[in-house]
Structures are given as C-alpha cells and as structure tokens.
Amino acid sequence: ATSAAEIWTKLSERYEGKGKQTIAYLIGELFRGTLSDESSMETQLNAMRQKSYVLKSLGQPLDDTLVAVAMVISLPSSYSTLR
Hints:
By secondary structure, this protein is mostly helical.
C-alpha cells in the first residue's frame, strides 16, 4: 500500500468485512440487542450508531428513523415509559 486511500481500503476489508453476511450480522445486532443499565447508555447508543455507519460504508445505509426504532426497542425495561 502506497497511499492513504489504499491503506484505508485494506484496513476496511480486513476489519469491517464485506458482503451480505456482514451486513446481515450488523442488522441483527442492531435489532436483537438489548441495552444494559450496567453500562453507560451513551456508550451503548454510540455503538449502535457506529454499526449503522459501518452498514452505510458497506453500501447498506439504514434510514435514521429505522436506527432510532432499533434504539428504542433495545432499551432496558427501566426505560419502559419511552417505548
């Protein structure tokens, strides 16, 4: 790799993966996960947002409303008034 773009491409392929299997895994993580009261809510929500950014970089962007729905349904029971 001789340029920053080539290095970025190699890193992306190595650590983010490509293809439908990775996309399916990330979408599953977004919609099946449950957030925890034991960890910072901000950190957990940021991790969900990161998954949506990775999906976008893989050519499978999700609408912000859909990501927001995934966040709401993942909230722990202590946040039940928000559901």
